[in-house]
Write a structure and sequence with these properties.
Blueprint lengths: L5 H29 L6 H27 L13 H11 L5 H29 L6 H34 L7
Bound molecules: magnesium ion and fe (iii) ion.
The site of magnesium ion has 6 residues, from helix 1 and helix 2.
Length: 172
């Protein structure tokens, strides 16, 4: 039954490809941000860790796609309209860049959480339960990152305010 569900399998494959593109976007966005976080060393360290996690997440998705016989060339074509908008926000270099990026990163991680939950729901339904452990591993990393960012929103805002009052916000 499950392995004749072509519509379901196609939806699952599309979800895997889209999330692969999102992971590459994450690596690119975070890599730009960490270069300008010298005044927020804890954030820089956590984001560098998540860059490595995101690379592993992309790799997990590649392995799932390869296992399903999907060609790697199709990975380049995945659409990314929502994340494209997030990227534009995160690329903005503004005096309050660190604040804007913290809010955007929080949204980004929650987009990823939703994407992995959606893939997990599909995996069972289309007979791809073997994908669960890889997807759950990535989901747990996204939840951890989202929780970490959540805890940073207030202190980062107050630190930015403190630096603004002291006139030291140049370079974030
Ligand atoms: Mg990710
Ligand atoms: Fe993430």
């Amino acid at each position: 039954m499950a392995n004749t569900d072509n519509v379901g399998l196609e939806l699952f494959l599309t979800g895997l490809r889209n999330q692969h593109a999102v992971e590459n976007q994450a690596v690119s966005l975070l890599s730009r941000q960490v270069e300008r976080l010298e005044n927020y060393p804890e954030m820089e360290a956590r984001m560098r860790q998540h860059i490595e996690e995101s690379k592993q997440q992309a790799h997990r998705l590649e392995e799932l796609l390869t296992g399903l016989g999907s060609s790697s060339s199709s990975l380049k074509d995945a659409g990314l309209s929502f994340m494209g908008n997030m990227a534009a926000l995160a690329h903005t270099v503004a005096p309050d860049e660190v604040l804007k990026n913290t809010l955007a990163n929080f949204a980004f991680e929650h987009f990823e959480i939703a994407a992995y939950k959606s893939l997990l729901a599909l995996a069972d339904t289309v007979g791809q339960s073997g994908s669960r452990s890889a997807l759950e591993q990535s989901l747990s990393e996204e939840i951890s990152m989202a929780q970490w960012i959540d805890q940073q929103i207030a202190p980062t805002t107050l630190r930015f305010l403190q630096r603004s009052r002291a006139g030291t916000t140049a370079g974030v």
